[in-house]
Design a protein that fits this description.
The protein is mainly alpha-helical. It contains ten helices and no strands. 53% of the residues are buried.
Length: 252
C-alpha cells in the first residue's frame, strides 16, 4: 500500500508539472496507477479526479498573467463538457478487460500527439471571429473533450495544437486558454466517474494535492522561462511510459 501511494503521488506531482507546461501529464500518471495495480476503470476515475483539481493552480497562474482568451470560454466550455460526458459514458460501457487493452493501445497515440513539435507561427495574437471560427471552436472542444472523457492523456496537447493551428491563436494564448477547456472536459468526466463509483478517494485526494503542487510549479516555470523545459519533462515521461508498457507486455 505504501509503495502504491509513493508511486502514484510522485507520478501525480511530476505529471502536474508536465501537464501545466505542455499537456500530457496523464502519460505519466496513468501508467503509474496501472503499474500500482489499480483496475482500468478506477485508474481513469481516480486520475480524472486528481487531474481536474490539479489543473486549477495552473489556470489561475495563466489567467493572472493574461494568457487566457476569455471570450472563447462560454461556447467552448459547453461543447467540451458535453464531449467529455459522452466520452466517459462510452468508457464506462466497456468491460474491464476490454478497457485495459484499449488504454494500452491508446497510450502511444497520446504520447505521439504530446511530442509533436509546437513551434510558434506568425499568427494574430487573438483568434479570428465569424461563423467559421465559432463552428471550428465547437468542433475542436467537443472532439477533444470526448477524447479526454474516454481516455485523457495528451488532451491538453490536443487543445493547444488545435487552438494554434486551426483557430490560429498565438502559442502562449493557446497554452493558457487550453487550461480552461482541459479543466472543463476533466470536470465532466470526473462527475461521470464519481457517480459511477469508480473513484478511489483515499488515493485520489492526496494525488490531487500532489497534482496541484506540480501544476503550480510547472505553470510558474512556463511563465518565467518559456517552453524550454517541455522536452526535458516529456523525455522523462517517455522513458517511464515505455518502461511501463514493456513491463505489462512481459507480464501478459
Amino acid at each position: 500500500m505504501l509503495t502504491t501511494y509513493v508511486l502514484c503521488l510522485t507520478a501525480s506531482f511530476i505529471g502536474g508539472i508536465i501537464d501545466s507546461i505542455a499537456g500530457g501529464g496523464g502519460l505519466l500518471t496513468m501508467p503509474a496507477m496501472l503499474l500500482a495495480g489499480l483496475p482500468p476503470h478506477a485508474t481513469l476515475g481516480t486520475g480524472k479526479f486528481a487531474s481536474t483539481i490539479g489543473t486549477v493552480p495552473a489556470l489561475l497562474n495563466y489567467a493572472r498573467n493574461g494568457f487566457v482568451v476569455w471570450r472563447m470560454v462560454p461556447a467552448g466550455v459547453a461543447c467540451a463538457l458535453l464531449g467529455s460526458w459522452c466520452g466517459s459514458l462510452l468508457a464506462l460501457r466497456l468491460d474491464s478487460s476490454t478497457l485495459g487493452k484499449v488504454l494500452i493501445c491508446l497510450l502511444p497515440v497520446g504520447l505521439l500527439v504530446t511530442l509533436l513539435p509546437k513551434k510558434e507561427r506568425s499568427v494574430s495574437p487573438l483568434p479570428q471571429t465569424g461563423w467559421r471560427f465559432w463552428t471550428s471552436l465547437a468542433g475542436v472542444t467537443f472532439g477533444v473533450g470526448m477524447y479526454d472523457g474516454f481516455f485523457g492523456p495528451g488532451a491538453g496537447s490536443f487543445f493547444i495544437l488545435a487552438f494554434h493551428f486551426i483557430l490560429r491563436m498565438g502559442l502562449v494564448e493557446s497554452s493558457g486558454t487550453a487550461k480552461v477547456f482541459n479543466l472543463t472536459s476533466n470536470a465532466g468526466a470526473m462527475i461521470a466517474f464519481c457517480l459511477s463509483g469508480h473513484v478511489w478517494y483515499a488515493l485520489a485526494v492526496p494525488m490531487a494535492c500532489a497534482s496541484m503542487a506540480g501544476n503550480w510549479l510547472g505553470s510558474r516555470l512556463a511563465i518565467c522561462t518559456g517552453p524550454a523545459l517541455v522536452k526535458k519533462f516529456l523525455g522523462v515521461s517517455l522513458m517511464l511510459l515505455m518502461a511501463t508498457l514493456i513491463f505489462r507486455a512481459v507480464r501478459q
